[in-house]
Structures are given as C-alpha cells and as structure tokens.
Amino acid sequence: MTRTLGKDLLGLEPLSTEQIRLILDTAEPFKEVSERQIKKVPALRGMTIVNLFFEASTRTRISFEFAEKRLSADTVNVGSSGSSVQKGETLVDTARNLEAMRINMVVIRHSASGAAHFLADRIESNVINAGDGTHEHPTQGLLDLLTLRDHFRTLEGRRVCIVGDVLHSRVARSNIWGLTKMGVEVAVCGPRSLLPKDIGEFGVRVFKRIDEAIEWAEALNVLRLQLERMQAGYIPSLREYNRVFGVTRERLERADHEVLIMHPGPMNRGVEIDSDVADGEQSVILDQVTNGVAVRMAVLYLLAGGRPDLADAAKGGSER
Amino acid sequence: MPPKNSVVLDARAVDRTLKRMADEIIELHNGTDDLILVGIQRRGVQLATRIVEAIREREKVEVPRGALDITLYRDDLQTVGPRPVVGPTDLPWNLEGKHVVIIDDVLYTGRTVRAALDELADFGRPARIALAVLVDRGGRELPIHADIVGKKIEVSPTDRVDVLVDELDGKDAVVVVPRDEGA
C-alpha cells in the first residue's frame, strides 16, 4: 500500500485509490487549523515555494497561497506579465533560474497541457499542477472529492454527474479520474459538441438531457461555460445553452430527491447555473472553496516530507 | 528465541497509577479551579479522559479535557516524513489564565513536549502549564521534566515502551518491547 505521494502531484490519473484517500484523510485536521485564531502551524517552516501562474487565476492562486502561509512556508508569486516570460524566456529556463535560488517547490498553472509534467521531469523541486491546459487540475478534483465525502460520509456507490463543457475542462478530467478511483458512479451531460469524442473510454455514463441527469444524480458538478466557446461555434448562443443545459430551480424541483450542487468557479450566473441554485440550500459551492485550502495544505505537507527512503530508515529511531 | 516483552504495569496498576496522578494534579494546583487537561494524540487523550473521570469521582467536578496533535509542530518532518494521519486538535477554550496540564503516555526525548508547548502558545497564554506522564523512561534530549510521573523506569535506548489503552488496544497495560520483537 502506498502511503506517500512521491515527488510531484501532476494529476489524479496516476494516483492510486490509497494515495487519494491519504490526501483526503490528511486534509481533515487541516480544516481545523483554518478555524483557529492563529491560523498557522510551523510544519513547512523554512521551505520556499514559488507559485508560477502563467494563466489568470484568483481562487486557485489565493487558495494555494493561504495553504502555504498557514503551513509557515515562504512564498513567491510569479506571473507571466511583468516577468522574463514576457521577454521570451522558456518555462525550463524560468524554473531552473528559480531553482538556482534554492527553492523547494513549484506550483504551476499553465495554458499548455503537460506543462507540469514537462517541468517535473526537468527540475529537482516538487512540482504541483495547479491546472495545465485542458489536461488536469488535481487539487480541484481533490477538493471536490472532499466536499462530496463531507456531505455523503462515503464516496463508494454515489452518483455524480458533471455538466457542461467537458471537452475543454481539466476540472472534468481530474474529477472523472478521481471519482471513478474512489468508486463513485460518474456521468457527464452537455452538448454533443462539448463532450470528448472518446468519452466512452472514460467509463462514464452520458446523458443527452439535463433532466435525465438530475433524475439520476445525487450531486451535479456544474462546469463553467467559457464564453469564448460561443465565438468558436461550439454552441449557438448563451441563452440557448441556458435553456437546454442550464441548472435551474424548476429543473431541480422536478426531481424526486435532493441534488447537491457544486461548481468550480468562477460562475456565469444565468448561463450554466441560475443564481437561486448557486445560492440555494443544496449548494456547497463555498464549502468547496473552504475545503480547497485544507486539501492544498495536505498536498503540500505530504510532498514536503515525501522522502520515503528516509522515512523508513528513521522510523525505528523516532519517538512514539 | 526472541527476547520477551515485559509488563511494567498491568490493568489494575494502570488504574491505580492514574488515580494517584489525578490526586497529585489536584494537589499541585490546590484544587480544580481553572484547570484544563490536554491529552496528546493519541494515547494521551484516553489517559486524560481517565484522569478527568477520577477527578469527577473524587471532587464531584468536571474538568475540561482537550486534545492536541503535535504532528504539525514536529521538528523532523524532513527526516522522518509526514505522519500518515494527523489526528484532531480540540481546544475550544480560551487558555488565558488557565492552568493547563499536558497529559502524555511516555516521556522520552522531550521533543513531543517541546512541540506541545509551541502549539499551546499559539492557542493562548495559560497562567501555568504542567506536565503529567504515565511513564518516564529517561533518555531526555531537551531540558524538560515532568511535574507528575506515574511510573519511572530504566530501559535500554533500543527498547520500546508501549502504553496500551482499552479504547484503542483492547486492554490497559504498559509493556517494554525489546528491539528485535516483531521485526
């Protein structure tokens, strides 16, 4: 049984069920740290972490930064504007220069799928993928799992439907891999043009109509519809999208059971989700944000100590 | 033949010892006013609960019992790796002006207590912090001593001292396990 994560967190696809459970279990006590008056523990004191965000992000970047600071790490934020990236420096050169300043970890958000892998293979520091292109966003997948587990107690056998632009969504991919590994039944629902052609290979159910999805699911994870998809011709219009696939109160009320509502943010109110659903009693959207900090603290903590060779050698001599 | 485990305290002796420790805690603090017992995860928490029960029987008062997990305050994350499971910390009171007694199962190097003191400081400023341990096995690496000791024993540094509690282990006992045992 694997009780460590290794050097990097690049996605949920390469993780085992045990590793995912380890992260979720480790996140539990970190929730309490954020409720303390002094929201800080010294676990990562002396570690230096660079947040390399080459793509716009508010929630994820701030969530990582809080997680790092609450573990007492020293952090530096680097964006693409105002840095050497603008002068055409390559990703590897940027990272190697940072590494020459003796950093310990890199958290990277990049528009190219595979950017985190690429970096992880080339630098010694731990690498955490904070979203790479349309590939994966593992900490989002993990915080979704934690929120579902909080609500349902257990994950095994639950039914979760991912709604919307699955084709371009790294959140959808991380969710599908994470959920299926934890024994959750997964479905997707969205316009044909926004579902991957090979969706059958993911082992998920496909609903053409949102009403069928709501009837089946215990939780909906509603994806953000990126507004530029309309210009690219994937959908006819936003109003049309809302009419056919929008998660509305009327639709939820027609179901014979309660459906938990999740959304990774930022929301387009009135497009993929209506305001009274987003702010309604079945919504756990803000719980997801709270859990995001705890899950990221858990990942940072586990990667920081992730030297299984030393861990095994030292076990005998340590106290208790 | 592997060396045998030796039982230092059996269930009845553990019970007797905890009751005596409860009396000593009350004596040390001239009563139970402002007293808070804080057990260190994991087995310190069960021991603290027992001492609370003993104080209730004797004094008819309910002393609050908190729990502290010091994992995130350890100084050896880089070398021993993360503990697989970090337990809950539960200290829902203002510690300002309180008399806190840290309860732990075994006092050895003192590093756990050092971490506990650091963590408590982040929760407030108690008037006094005392330390009560069921077993003191010597071998300190820091200038730390216990105010109340259930049983002091001399063991080789390679031996392990296990405190078993009914709630987690099915019985109460203190056992010395020689290094080779179960390897």
CATH architecture title of the largest domain in chain A? 3-Layer(aba) Sandwich
From the alpha-carbon coordinates, what is the Rg of chain B to the nearest angstrom?
A: 16 Å
Total domain modules of chain B: 1
Number of helices, where a helix is a run of at least 4 consecutive DSSP H or I residues of chain B: 5
**Largest sheet of chain A, if any?**
5 strands, parallel
Major beta sheet, strand line-up of chain B: 3-2-4-5-6
Q: In percent, how helical is the residue content of chain A?
A: 40-55%
**How many domains make up the coordinates of chain A?**
2
Describe this structure in words.
The complex is a heterodimer of chains A (320) and B (183). With 320 residues, chain A is an alpha/beta fold. Chain A folds into two domains: 17-136 and 291-307, Aspartate/ornithine carbamoyltransferase (Rossmann fold); 138-288, Aspartate/ornithine carbamoyltransferase (Rossmann fold, 3-Layer(aba) Sandwich), CATH 3.40.50.1370. Chain A has 13 helices and nine strands. In chain A, β3, α4 and β4 form a beta-alpha-beta unit. The longest helix of chain A is centred in the C-terminal third of the chain and has 20 residues, at 285-304. Chain A is globular, with a radius of gyration of 20 Å. Chain A starts with 16 loop residues before the first helix and ends in a 5-residue tail after the last helix. Chain B has 183 residues and is of the alpha/beta class. Chain B has a single domain (6-75, 88-177), classed as Rossmann fold. Chain B has helices spanning 11-28, 43-59, 77-80, 111-121, 166-169, and strands at 6-9, 35-40, 65-68, 99-107, 128-136, 148-152, 160-164, 173-177. Chain B has a five-stranded parallel beta sheet. In chain B, strands 1-8-7 form a three-stranded antiparallel beta sheet. In chain B, α1 packs across α2. The two termini of chain B are 13 Å apart.
